[in-house]
Design brief:
The structure holds two protein chains of two kinds. Chain A is an all-alpha fold. Chain A has a single domain, classed as MetI-like (MetI-like fold), CATH 1.10.3720. Helices cover about 70% and strands about 0% of the residues of chain A. Chain A contains eleven helices and no strands. The longest helix of chain A is centred in the last third of the chain and has 32 residues, at about 240-270. Chain A is globular, with a radius of gyration of 23 Å. The model of chain A has no long low-confidence stretch (mean pLDDT about 85). By secondary structure, chain B is mostly helical. Chain B has a single domain, classed as MetI-like (MetI-like fold). Helix content of chain B is about 75%, strand content about 0%. Chain B contains 14 helices and two strands. Chain B has helices at about 1-30, 50-55, 60-90, 95-105, 115-120, 120-125, 130-135, 150-175, 180-190, 195-205, 205-220, 225-230, 240-245, 250-280, and strands at about 35, 40-45. A two-stranded antiparallel sheet of chain B has the order 1-2. In chain B, a hairpin with a 4-residue loop joins strand 1 and strand 2 (about 40-45). In chain B, helix 1 (about 1-30) packs across helix 14 (about 250-280) and helix 3 (about 60-90) packs across helix 8 (about 150-175). Chain B is globular and about 70 Å long. The two termini of chain B are about 40 Å apart. The chains are: A mainly alpha, B mainly alpha. Chains A and B meet through helix 1, helix 4, helix 5, helix 6 and helix 7 of A and helix 1, helix 3, helix 4, helix 5 and helix 6 of B.
Chain lengths: ~270, ~280
């Protein structure tokens, strides 16, 4: 194909390159600046190179509760991941056949994506206030995050089941497998890479969610709320160190998920 | 017949969660928007004052206009950028592996923190930022440009940075489903590349364009974080107006604004869906 590239290829490739630079450039800049020397500021030039701002980050008095909010976000992300994978998978199975209220449920899921996050946050916050419950990251916060991750999970499951041949299940049934055995030993193993993808979506969307956490996290902040608080009162590169650490965690999770999927594919290919 | 009920059973956790954390909270907002309040607390009531105050304030109209303007500009830029990127990936990258890798390169930033991605513009756009230094260096300007950071320009730049992906993904998805034989046929019939794009690709990519447009418009209409951080408090948005009312404990006022915003967003989406459907009929 290389020989007959159209004239449009190179201008489009250049545009794409600029787009990628636009996406990644700023993040790379703050990663570099987070290694600013102790005397350095929020912009270039670099005044020496150090890990001063990273150690600063872990001294709790300096920048609020980084450790605590990080732990809460990780736990919340893990819970959201599990619930999102299980619930979207079940709903995906359900939507393969017609059931009462299917259309309504589908529109509800789409609405959940479209209704602005701040409204859901506000609504859940007010709801807890009216029933006299204290909002907390593991109750109201969890629910708020699920209204964001579940519709994504459901849409991915739709795409997955559209390409999934029922022949595998019929074969299992013909061999005498119960419905549960068919799911456990046939459907889940085949769909595992997609389920990992849904889990990745669930975790990263929850771990980074700000607006839906605002009125639902309660007394203890999750990490994005902590970061947001810092943007208004921290004017040192410690902000960038925090950015580097959280982005690093995101990349680790994404890398692990992609690595897992590649490994699964390879094992199956062999 | 057991299938019907097993379907219902399997879908019930999703239905339950959405009922509890989407329907009931929105119902709560509607109810609270009719409550009365003073400086410390709100009381159950049925009054229209929250809506009256909202509609009688010129700030409301100005803020809605500003937010609509942000949404329109962001939508237009995201559409052009997203379409071009998706078109390149779908039609100019031949190997499926390369396609997947480049697609992932585009999507990975979506999985990192929005707040961090906004902050990351500071060293680039600031008064002593890279862009000003570069422009001063080549002698294009004599003193640093002030409008780069903390301005409407910065807000829109951040929106495009954060949300152009909402356009890329659905458009790419529509494009890879286009039957290549149709494009071959158009070429064989003598269509130029531009004519193929205009008469084959764009009409067939329309569902993706619509989904992307709806996502971008919805997310910008409800935003407050980007406006607050990137405008440095100099611009407003409807979301920010609500958040400010909340911080003053004026919950019913915020709720009334939320109801109006929800209606506006839903009307905009309905209008967008109508445009597509009508064109499909023609």
């Amino acid at each position: 194909m290389g020989g007959n590239r159209s004239r449009a290829f190179w201008p489009l490739a250049a545009f794409f390159g600029l787009f990628v630079l636009f996406l990644y450039g700023p993040t790379i800049t703050i990663v570099v600046l987070s290694f600013q020397g102790p005397e350095g500021g929020l912009t270039f030039p670099m005044r020496g190179v150090s890990t001063h701002w990273f150690s600063n980050l872990f001294e709790t008095q300096m920048v609020g509760d980084f450790g605590g909010s990080f732990t809460r976000s990780m736990i919340l992300g893990a819970i959201v991941t599990v619930v999102t994978v299980v619930v979207s998978f079940m709903a995906g199975l359900a939507f393969r056949r017609r059931f009462p209220g299917a259309a309504a449920l589908f529109y509800l899921a789409v609405a959940s994506l479209i209704v602005p996050s701040v409204l859901i946050s506000l609504g859940i916050g007010l709801m807890f206030r009216l029933i006299g419950e204290d909002a907390a990251w593991w109750s109201s916060g969890l629910g708020a995050h699920l209204t964001w991750t579940l519709p994504f999970g459901l849409l991915i499951m739709f795409a997955v089941f559209n390409r999934f041949s029922p022949a595998y299940e019929e074969a299992a049934r013909d061999l005498g497998a119960t419905p549960w055995q068919t799911i456990r030993h046939v459907v889940v193993p085949i769909l595992l890479p997609s389920l990992i993808g849904v889990g990745l979506f669930g975790f990263t969307l929850s771990y980074d969610e700000f607006a839906r956490s605002l009125y639902t996290a309660g007394t203890f902040n999750t990490l994005p709320l902590e970061i947001y608080g810092m943007t208004t009162n921290v004017t040192t590169p410690v902000l960038y160190a925090l950015g580097t650490v959280t982005t690093g965690v995101s990349f680790l999770v994404i890398g692990a998920a992609i690595g897992g999927v590649v490994l699964l594919r390879r094992r199956r290919g062999g | 017949m057991t299938n019907r009920w097993s379907g219902l059973l399997l879908a019930s956790p999703l239905a339950l969660i959405l009922a509890l954390f989407l329907i009931v909270p929105i119902g709560t907002i509607v109810v609270v928007s009719f409550f009365d309040y003073d400086s410390v607390r709100m009381f159950p009531a049925f009054v229209w004052t929250n809506y009256e105050e909202l509609f009688l304030s010129p700030i409301t109209w100005k803020t809605y206009f500003q937010t609509l303007q942000f949404a329109a500009i962001t939508w237009a830029i995201c559409l052009i950028v997203g379409f071009t990127v998706a078109y390149f990936l779908a039609f100019h990258i031949a190997s499926p592996l390369m396609q997947t890798v480049l697609f992932l390169v585009c999507t990975i930033p979506f999985w990192t923190s929005n707040v961090i991605r906004m902050i990351s513009w500071i060293p680039f756009l600031g008064r002593n930022g890279l862009l000003n230094q570069a422009l001063l260096g080549v002698g294009a300007i004599d003193e640093p440009l002030e409008f780069l950071l903390f301005s409407n320009f910065a807000v829109i730049l951040a929106y495009v940075h954060l949300y152009s992906l909402f356009m890329v993904v659905p458009i790419f998805n529509s494009m890879v489903r286009i039957d290549r034989a149709l494009i071959e046929a158009a070429r064989d019939a003598g269509a130029t590349e531009w004519q193929v794009l205009r008469n084959v690709v764009i009409p067939l990519a329309r569902p993706g364009i619509m989904i992307g447009s709806i996502l971008v418009v919805a997310v910008v209409m409800g935003d407050f974080v980007t406006v607050r951080l990137m405008s440095g408090g100099q611009s407003a948005s409807v979301g920010l107006m609500m958040v400010n009312a909340m911080s003053l404990l004026q919950y019913p006022a915020a709720a009334a604004n939320a109801v109006v915003l929800l209606i506006v967003v839903l009307l905009m989406i309905a209008a967008m869906l109508r445009i597509v459907d009508i064109r499909k009929e023609l």
